[in-house]
Amino acid sequence: MTPKKLRCDTCGKETDQLRRDVVDQGYNALNKTPLWNCETCYEKKRAQRQEPPR
Ligand SMILES: [Zn+2]
Q1: Alpha-carbon distance 1 to 25, whole Å?
Q2: 19: which strand partners?
Q3: 48 alpha carbon to ligand 1 midpoint, in Å?
Q4: How much is the pLDDT for 26?
Q5: Quick count: other Cβ atoms within 10 Å of Cβ 13?
Q6: CA-based max dimension of the chain
Q7: Kind of pairing, strands 19-21 and 6-7?
Q8: Coil, helix or strand at residue 47
């Protein structure tokens, strides 16, 4: 079996492990295509989300 290569939807990097981005959980989540992020992008987005706007 060949290992399945996964690709980050944000930076395009190939990685063994991806995390599904569930940013908009709660609103319009059902209409959105889930984004798959590598560990780096996932953490980056999570950090941004935790910052207060402005
Ligand atoms: Zn990435």
Answers
A1: 35
A2: 37
A3: 14
A4: 59
A5: 14
A6: 49
A7: unpaired
A8: helix
Determine the Cα–Cα distance for residues 40 and 19; give it in Å rounded to an integer: 10
Which pLDDT does position 4 carry in this prediction?
Answer: 73
* Ordered per-residue pLDDT tens for the chain, 54 residues: 666 789 999 999 999 999 987 655 555 556 667 789 999 999 998 888 887 766
DSSP state of 31: G
Q: Is 15 helix (H, G, I), strand (E, B) or coil?
A: strand
Rounded distance between C-alpha atoms, residue 21 and residue 52, angstroms: 19
Q: For residue 26, report the distance from its CA to the centre of ligand 1, in Å.
A: 24
**Span from the CA of 18 to the centroid of ligand 1 (angstroms):** 9
**Token duo for residue 27:** 């609103």
